[in-house]
Amino acid sequence: MSGGLLIEFATADQLLEAARHARANGFATAEAYSPFPVEGLADALGFHRNRVALVTALGGVLGGLSTYALIWYSAVLDYPINVGGRPLHSWPSFIPPTFEVTILGAALAAVIGMLAMNGLPRLRHPLFDMPEFDLASRNRFFLFLPADDPAYDADAARAWLQTLSPLRITEQGR
Q1: Is residue 147 a contact partner of residue 27, using CB atoms and an 8 Å limit?
Q2: Secondary structure, 3-state, 93-129
Q3: 3-state secondary structure of 141
Q4: 126 DSSP β-pair partners
């Protein structure tokens, strides 16, 4: 991240209004920080549904199918053993390990997909260096407009932000 504007507000309503203005002015990657969840903030910032559920389902299906195929291959083709006259493809005995690996595959895919889609692990964010940002976990509300957003124009953003009466506007260096 290369810098941007950090805007501090005293109330959640001001932050929500600023997020709506940012979205209306073309900011696609604005970030909001508050000490508690703010109703409607995700919609105001333009968040959309992610695909973690799809990745989880694909991980489960892939895990289950690959486990069943491995058991079938090993029991029927690679090392067939006739035990008590049972058929080589005795599918009821294949179900428990297939179920277990289906759950394991879905869980692993969910965790890895969630981390990848959130851009994690991001161990350091440039905002953490700003001394006033520690108030975001106590009693202040912040909107961050990143400089690498295509709609970023510091002077124009300051102009429409001043109409929202923020407590402070800080420009983070590039």
Answers
A1: no
A2: HHHHHHHHHHHHHHHHHHHHHHHHHCCCCCCCCHHHH
A3: strand
A4: none
Sheet holding 31-33, edge to edge: 31-33, 141-146, 4-9, 168-172
Q: Quote the CA–CA distance of 164 and 130 in Å, as a whole number.
A: 22
Please tell me the distance from the alpha carbon of residue 30 to that of residue 6, in angstroms, as a whole number: 10
CA distance 89 to 68: 11
pTM for the complete prediction?
0.70
Of 164, 126, 159, 168, the residue nearest 31 (C-alpha): 126
Q: CB under 8 Å to 20, separation ≥6 — which residues?
A: 44
Task: Quick: pLDDT tens for 130-152.
Answer: 788 888 888 899 999 988 888 89
29, 150 in Cβ contact below 8 A? Answer: no
pLDDT tens digits along 33-56: 999 999 999 999 988 888 999 999
Residue 78 Cα distances to 81, 91, 173, angstroms: 10, 16, 63
Beta strand ranges found along the chain (DSSP E): 4-9, 31-33, 141-146, 168-172
